[in-house]
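Figure 6 in text form: structure in, sequence out.
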């Protein structure tokens, strides 16, 4: 991901297309949401209430994105920061939308050699479990 310490490995399923306008709108809203949050809060590890980050396209079932941190379990932090979530969204924008790969996808996020997160982009609605502290759109 340009201008980031993160990289992701993404597998897209070209037999599972996502409507281009729904993908673009969802990615734009997600980035705006994260930028707004970051502009009023210092960057830090994603809080449990915001993890996983979930957003869907106006709850229509046309596009949903989920980004989740790997919980710490070994030496050192292995979870994502709020800026890291935004970086992943920027990377998804470049790879899926700008490169016209409008398909359902799964991905793994790394910081150096450590896996710090994973996620999905899919057709469908994001399941909601309780309050998300403003993470859901």
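Output sequence:
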């Amino acid at each position: 991901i340009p201008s980031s310490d993160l990289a992701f490995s993404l597998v897209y399923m070209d037999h599972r297309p996502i409507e281009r306008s729904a993908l673009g709108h969802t990615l734009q809203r997600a980035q705006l949401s994260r930028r707004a949050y970051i502009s009023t809060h210092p960057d830090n590890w994603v809080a449990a209430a915001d993890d996983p980050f979930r957003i869907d396209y106006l709850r229509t079932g046309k596009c949903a994105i989920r980004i989740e941190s790997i919980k710490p379990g070994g030496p050192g932090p292995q979870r994502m920061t709020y800026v890291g979530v935004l970086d992943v969204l920027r990377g998804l924008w470049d790879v899926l939308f700008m490169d016209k790969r409008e398909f359902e996808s799964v991905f793994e996020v790394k910081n150096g050699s450590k896996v710090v997160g994973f996620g999905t982009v899919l057709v469908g609605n994001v399941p909601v479990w309780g309050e998300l502290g403003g993470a859901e759109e």
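Caption detail: The first strand starts at residue 6 and ends at 17.
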